[in-house]
Amino acid sequence: MAWPAATEYMEAIQNPRTCFSDPELQDDVPSLDRLGMPFVSSGQFAYVFKLRQDTGKASAVRCFRGFIGDRERRYAAIDAHLASAPIPALASFEYYPDGILVRNQKYPILVMEWIEGPTLDVYVAAVLHRREVLLYLADQWVRLVKALRDAQIAHGDLQHGNIIVQNGVLRLVDFDGMFVPSMSRMRSIETGHRHYQHPRRDEFFFNRDLDSFSSLVIYLSLLALADRPGLWTRFHDENLVFTRADFLNPSRSELLSEISRIGPQHKQLADALARACQAPPTAAPALPDLVAAKSKLPAWMVAPAGAVVVTKTREAPAGQSPSGPTVSPSYTAPGAGGLGHASTSPTTATSGATQTSAGPQVPSSTLPTNLRTAGILTRSISVAIGFALTGLLFIWAWVPLLNGIYRDLGFQDGTGATIWTYAIGCALFGFFRARNERRKLRAAMRSLPPQRVAQSPPVSHQLPTPSKTWPSQSHSGPHFPVPRSVGTRAVIASKTRLIYHRPGCEWARRISAGNRVVFTSPNDAQAAGYRRCRLCAP
Q: Which residues contact 249 (CB under 8 A, 6 or more apart)?
């Protein structure tokens, strides 16, 4: 059976009420490109569409390009493992085996959390000459790889297009090739991006060590670019800097040779990568065994100050007439108080996330999440702490200086006054730095074009009701038991869709264990930002 082409999926998604089985997706509106067609990104295994709820929340709908016999089994195994070993960096998802109707035939879809932010290559290009940001990214990468390895998970296709920088935090998307322990007898369905994978990787190599080679490639790329940004211009294309040619013949690789001359750590890692290229794929060293994360503090406490970068997207601003390429700001460098906000990413063959422009007004709902919750006080404290810790490196200079000043002013012992002066100075520096960053962010957001609520594409005929197309008895997807401890007023919610249901609702029983949230009452769910299911109306 031939699977739908991109144009057939696009035609179906223009009428969500007739094509989707999920009643909540039926009320969503597809985002459009500047030509007025559904906004879509194409990957190796799926077409990714962006749908918006009336609340403004967006979801990524992955429509698959071909048949894989055990796809449902694989996603069920991934979901079951993540329920017991959750990884915040992984986007939440729900798999629907009969989720979309195209040409009178049902096909599976994967509904994922839409992650706002640029893909790794876009982010790196924007902060290329900021060494501290690239080193911060490299450190966060080590922490993420270690978290995956500790959970016995391998992503299977670590590459720039599957890594999103969201608010200064690295997130992963596209789990088609993921490994979890219950898949130990399966084969891999892909061999990953050729510029990141071992040249001899095949379908039989499928275990927890699947990411060892690619994670080392990405880390060494970030480390090298931090000290040699010129490598980007010379070696970047559909990669960061390394290509498959470097892996096939590492002894003749100009890039590996140049990286080895940067410093001792670079040489050590370059030699490790060269040895891994010549050994079997299973012998590649795990990145956490080679390097350790420099900080265990939360990302917002150690991230460098933010930067504003302008990028382009094919997605038309919500509610505006498609009329050409749009430009929206991307807050690409992370800020400790949440200044590293969303951005757009080019619509390449990945499932990366893009974002449309915000309005000219700056209500709290349009500001980055961390900036709204933590606010200027948290940012001030984090900057002050960072400044104070840095200043301790120069304690030999400022302590004698301040002591001498206070003694000249008549203090017998200036130690106490010196400490108080240093503490107050750090606090004032943090406050004024945070206030200045907040002003810059607001000024950037005010310069954007207005955003209006997106409207459904017009149709000239009466759409049939969902119940006629998708009768409840036709659902064949998995059902997950609702916990017996749920009270009479409790509701079941989905993290992926931010929707809550009655415990007995058909769609509540379909929420996987990893995405299920239980609230004691509908009011609690609404206070947490969830909306009620239109089907069971709890």
A: none
